[in-house]
Structure of Fe2OG dioxygenase domain-containing protein:
Amino acid sequence: MIQNEAHLINLDRYPIHRDCPERDAVLLQVRADLARDGCAVLKGFLTAEAIRALTAEAESVADKGHRSFSRTNAYFTTDNASLPEDDPRRQFFDRSNAFIPADNFAPDGPLRRVHDFDGFDRFIQECLQEENFYRYADPLADVIVNMAEEGNGFPWHFDTNNFTVTLAIQNATGGGSFEYAPMIRQGGENFAEVAQVLNGTSDKVTVLELEPGDLQLFRGRYSLHRVAPLTGDRRRYVAIFSYVEEPGMVGAPERTQQLYGRTLPIHHERAGQRVDSYLD
């Protein structure tokens, strides 16, 4: 086990734990990237030692991942026959993926220790420049690992939570690029542009090739995105930290069941408590 949390994060390059000109410069660059298209990547955020530790931890709980195979639209809703056939809400795609729920990661494990590192939340909040900023209160989803194998992927979708922070841990042998259409749902559903992304005619799609140790900040509530199908026999692991605008927010029961294979009482107690009216 890594004894010193400072060995997890590349603090020479990203001194998130102290106020200094180097930290200010990182903030300026991240903010500029987020303002441009809702996505910023901090290359080499983790140390090589941390990458090894997080990979080992993910491997140790891989059997806890919930695998699901279904057909879904970008909003995780059921079909509505009253809409036109070419409406994006009626476009369904194969989804094959696995998530290792948050309650499988120990408080003293490397994943939680990165999340709880002194200054981590404050740094993320200052990057996003959000006054209302809270950790996702979902006990199954505040910090999870996405696990994908050959043939898996995640079709086009919008996130339920407003801010997603991810750490690339291990790439598959091939495939798995992160593709997104920046901010196309900001200010409205914009079904026409969503339809173009889904049918492959949009010129607004950006493709990212993330490497192990990269930290990504992404506004997935507003940007349609997907993970391209994987190839090869090596699993892809990506840690996901989630933040929202209101305290106490958790996932909807239907979507939680889809993603994690189970729900908890809190998901039903807080069903319908959202701060916006976007489709999920």
Summary: The two ends are 39 Å apart (CA to CA).
